[in-house]
Amino acid sequence: MHTTGLYCYRTWDGWACWDDTPAGTTVYSPCPQYVSKEWDPLAQAYKECTSNGTWWRRPDTGAVFTKYFNCMDEEKMTENKSAVYVYLAGYGVSTMAILISLVIFFAFKQLHCDRITIHKNLFVSYVLTGVGWIIYYLKVPLDHDVIVANPFWCQGLHVLVQYLTVCNYFWMFCEGLYLHTIIVVAFTTGKALLICCCVIGWGLPAVITFIYASIRGILRDATHECWIINSPYFWILNGTVAFSLLLNLAFLCNIVRVLMTKLRAVNSPDTNQGRKAVRATLILIPLLGLQFVLFPFTPSDSHTKTYYLIASAFVTSFQGFFVALIYCFLNSEVLTVLRRKWEQYKLMRGSQDSSSSPRRPSSTYYTSAEVTAHASSSKLKHKRSTVATLHPSPSHSEQHSTCECL
């Protein structure tokens, strides 16, 4: 302890304790291993005591700052960067696919029905999640200064992307809930069901995320490194998400039971559409839950862990792409509408080309008998067209203009 001369007073920076230090000197301390497993156990952090007897402060924030840059294990940081690049690519592809799907859903009135409305909310949550995670990975994991400084905005960004991620899974739960209510319960109003889904999809994740952020914010030992490190409090989020997936799977199993027992003899369009919707959702449930199967088994070996992180990043970030693929690009209703629109476009294009082609003047001379025959033929065609106008036949587009989704 220094009791004479100019010195910096002992302090606790949140991670380590620093003793009294003479002015104009730098003090070193081993990197605390309890903060992060990614830190090099042989490296040292350091803190500068300035010549005026105060601890060095960051010029941009004015806060007292300890330099933990040397604690970062470069090999492990390289592994993390590889996974981050996969995340960025995956979320970018997923966001573009989801945006294209939303344009299709909003552009065609034939797709305006309650089930597509559920799809739209699910897709909007994926767009927001993709954009949020892209911003997060560009601003936080790739910037060591931000991780060490641990500013409040990066913790807030962490909470925001966690909320949006939970919204993804809860809107996926709403997909199963909607199918279960329509097929099994049958007697319900679409508006009331949509309001219920909005509360579950957007409101309930806010409550869960608030509980997670409050607990982790109160406990100071869990607020390091922009909350980027694994924490047991993640299970507040992951546990509810896993429960929603299991409950969704139970819903869908019950739907399959109803379709197989009560509707086996009925071959109506509604029954076929219900089976297609259930099949699509049953495919997505295991896909979205795959990361929860991989999560508890993180390998300790450095080489194996690299492949694990990349595989986990791929499964997580490309979820939006697979959702768009199954619910939009491979959806029979969407393909039918797009195919019909394309046929209409080709028909209109062909009629425009034929009408715009120049006509050559005729130099043929007709006899009086030929003129009389042509006039009689024109009268007969006019009479037939009049009858057809009084008794029109339904067109192909009129027969198939309704949305067939549930």
TrEMBL record:
Domain (G-protein coupled receptors family 2 profile) ranges: 1-75, 83-331
Polar residues: bias regions: 386-396
GO molecular function annotation: calcitonin receptor activity
SUPFAM superfamilies reported in the protein's UniProt record: Family A G protein-coupled receptor-like (SSF81321), Hormone receptor domain (SSF111418)
Basic and acidic residues bias: start-end ranges: 397-406
Transmembrane intervals: 84-108, 120-138, 169-187, 192-213, 233-256, 277-295, 307-330
Coiled coil regions, renumbered to chain: none
Keywords: Cell membrane, Disulfide bond, G-protein coupled receptor, Glycoprotein, Membrane, Receptor, Signal, Transducer, Transmembrane, Transmembrane helix
SMART domains in alphabetical order: HormR
Region (Disordered): 375-406
Gene3D superfamilies: GPCR, family 2, extracellular hormone receptor domain, Rhodopsin 7-helix transmembrane proteins
Gene Ontology CC terms, in alphabetical order: plasma membrane
GO annotation (BP), single: adenylate cyclase-modulating G protein-coupled receptor signaling pathway
UniProt record similarity statement: Belongs to the G-protein coupled receptor 2 family.
Annotated localization: Cell membrane
Record has Glycoprotein as a keyword: yes
Topology of this chain in the membrane: Multi-pass membrane protein
Subcellular location, principal: membrane
Designated name of the protein: Calcitonin gene-related peptide type 1 receptor-like
